[in-house]
């Protein structure tokens, strides 16, 4: 959100329009927040947590594009490559939630990134539904409650964070500086009240 303030502003406008400012979003609001859902889809696609999916083992000989693959072979799906396929996702290196929307609603013609980022077949992630619901409540609440802006250096110049991610088994951003402030005193109180309820 720090690197894409225009996306943050659109998301905040959607949350304010649908939810108002008197409360934080909840699960009942989800179907009315398609831009938030598009952000979640794009987060899953743009930088998948598991760039190389959990391996599967062939139970019988197989062939793929003319290549013989013997029974017992371990197969790794390259989720990152699948989710950066230019045919499915034009300009794949750009963070662009709008790719998942058409006329203000989720576009069913755009491949759901969950198809690749949560694994495949019988070993698909059993927690995928909880993960997506958690992402929704976290992202919608953060967008509703806070402004995310560039940190300011000692020279008074804003610091533009770099998009640096780890190259480990699990993909996550490297630490960066930013400024996070409540959008209003009312939002700060809502966050405190929610935290106290946990």
From TrEMBL:
Assigned keywords, A-Z: Heme, Iron, Membrane, Metal-binding, Monooxygenase, Oxidoreductase, Transmembrane, Transmembrane helix
Domain of life of the source: Eukaryota
Primary residence: membrane
Residues where heme binds: 125
Entry annotated with the keyword Membrane: yes
Family matches, as Pfam families: p450 (PF00067)
GO MF annotations in UniProt: heme binding; iron ion binding; monooxygenase activity; oxidoreductase activity, acting on paired donors, with incorporation or reduction of molecular oxygen
Localization per Swiss-Prot or TrEMBL: Membrane
Pathway: Secondary metabolite biosynthesis
Cofactor: heme
Similarity-based family: Belongs to the cytochrome P450 family.
Protein name, as recorded: Cytochrome P450
Protein source organism: Cerrena zonata
